[in-house]
Model the fold of this input.
Amino acid sequence: MILILAWRNIWRNKKRSLIIIAAIAVGLCCGLFASATMFGMWDSLINTTIDRDLGHFQIHSKSFEDEKLLTDTIPNFQNILTQLHSTNNVIGVSSRVLVEGMISSATSFGGVRIVGINPQDEKNVTTVYKQIIQGSYFGENWRNQIVIGQKLAENLGIKERSKIVLSFQGVDGSIIYGAFRVAGIFKTESSVFDKSNVFVQESDLLRLINSDPISNEIVVRLSSVQQVDSVYIPIKKQYANLSVKNWEELAPELKLFNDMLMTQMNIFVGIILFALLFGITNTMLMSVMERVREFGVLMAVGMKRSRVFIMIILETISLSFLGGIIGISMGLILIEYFKHVGINLSAFTEGLSQWSMGSRLYTSLPLNFYPSLVLMILITAILGAIYPAFKAIRLKPATAIRTY
Amino acid sequence: MSLIELKDVSRIYDETVVPIRAVDSVNLIIDKGEFTAIVGPSGSGKTTLLNLIGGLDQPTAGKIIVDGTDISTYKPDVLINFRLHHIGFVFQAYNLIPVFTAKENVEFIMLLQNIPKTEREKKALDFLQAVGLGDRVNATPAELSGGQQQRVAVARALASSPSFVLADEPTANLDSASAESLLDLMENLNQNNNMTFVFSTHDQKVIRRAHRVVTLQDGKVKSDELNPIRIKNEN
Done:
C-alpha cells in the first residue's frame, strides 16, 4: 500500500514528473549511445587489428622479442604447426619469416618490415587479401611477387607491376638484395600498417637467404575471441621455452586505449548521473515542500518516520526507474539501429586510419553494461532522495499540520 | 479511572525575546466516555492544549497521563507509535490523503498497525458504512463534499480503535447542515460506543452539544463545567 501511495504521489503533479522522467530518459539514452559508440570504436579497433595482422595469439622465440632478428627462429616449428592445426577452435595457422629491411624504388626508399608468408595459410589468419585495391594477392605466375600497402606505394611512387628492391641482413650477416615486382596493393584501415609492412612469399625469401624452412612467428586464428584463453593458456604452458602472447599482450597500446575509453565513458556517465542527481533532488524537494501538511498528518496519525522516509525513497525510485526504463529502451533501439547501419565517419577517414579504424562506426554495448547502469540509476535515485526525505521526517507534526 | 490527566502542565514558547506561556499550569482530568469541548478566544491555547494531549507536542513542565501512561517524557518516535494505537485525530481541514480513495484512507491507518489486508478491508468498509458513506467508498477526497470528507476523517480516526478522538475545530470548514450531521454522527458514537471525544472549537453548534465545556483564557483554565445549555435542554 505504501508502494501504491508512492506511485500515486508521483502522478499528483504530472507535468513535473514527466519533465524529470524525460530528463532521466534523455540523459540515459545519450549516455548509453555515447558509451555504445565508444565500445563500437574499441571493438572496431580490436577486430581490425586482430584481422589485419595480430591474429588471436602468436608464438616467437624468446630472443626474437629483443632484437627481432631473422636468426631468432622458433625451434621445431613444424611440430608446433601440426599440433595447432589439430587443436579445437583453431581455424587458421600461419608461419611467418620476418626481417626488417629497406625497400627502394627508382625514386624513393624507406624502411619496412618484410613478412614472408605462405599466402594460403595467411588467408586463414588475416584479411589483408580482402583489402587488395590493385592487382592480386600473390595471384601472378612470376617469381618474387610482393604485396605492399597503398601508402607505401604512394611514398615510393610505384604502382602495380612496378619493380622494387628489398635489402636486408641475411642469416650470415651479409646484406642481401632482392628484386621484386608489385603483384598487389592493399589498403587497410591503418595507414601506419600500410606504409610499414610488405608481404612476400616465404619460398622467395628463403631462396634469397639460402635457408631451409624457418619460422620467426606463428600466428594463430581462433573461431572467436572468447576462445583465446582456452587455447592459448595450454599452449603457453606447454611451450614455456617460447614466447606465447595473446593479442592483448602483443598490443599493449590497445589495452591503454581501452582503459582510456573506459575512463572517458565512466566520467561521461558519471557527469550524466551527477546532473540527474541534482534534478531528482530538486524535484523531490519541491514535492516534499508542497506536501508538508500531509507529512505532518501522516506522522500525527501514527506513520513512523522510517516509513515516511521509505515512501519518499520509493517515490524517487519509481520516478527514476520509469525514466530509466524509457531511457534504456530508447538507447537500445538507437544502439541496435546503428549496430546494423553504422555511423558514417567518412569525413574523418584520414584521421581514423591513423588509429586503425574504418570510416563507418558500428555501435556496440556489452549486455552486462545494462544491469550495472540500472544499479547506478538506483543508487543515484536513492542518493537524490535522501535530502528531501530527511527534510520530510524532520518536520514537526504539530507545526506541519498547520502549514498551508 | 481517568482517561486523560494533565498535572500542572505548561507549554512555554521561547522563540521570541519574551517567552509565551501558551498553556500555563493546566490541571485537567477527562474520563472515559466524555464529550468535552475546549473553548476560548483565539490565542487562548486551545490548539496547544490539544497538541499536548495528542502527543504532538511536549510540555515544558508538568505531566500528561493518557491511558495510565505518562507521555510527557516520550521521545518523538515513541509518541508516533503511541498516537497510532491510542489516539484518533480529526482535523479542521479534513487532511485526507488526496491520492487515496475513502476506503484506502480508512484502511491506511490499519496498515500502519499491521492489520492483515482482508481484515482491514472489511473494517474500513464497516466504518465507512457507519459514518453513512457506504456508497462512496471508492471516491477520492476531491470527489467528496467537505462534510463527507470530514466523515471519512472520523472513520479514519475510529479505524485505529483509539482510546479517544481529538477533534481540532472539526466543523470550522463545514456548512451548518454538514456540521450538524457530523455532530450527530459523533454524538451517536459517543453514546452508543462510549467513544470519548475532545474538541477544540469556536462553534456554538459544537459547544451546545458538548457535555462538558472547558474554557481557556491566556493559557489557563478559566472555567470547567458541565454544559449549562445541554443540562437546560435535557431538563
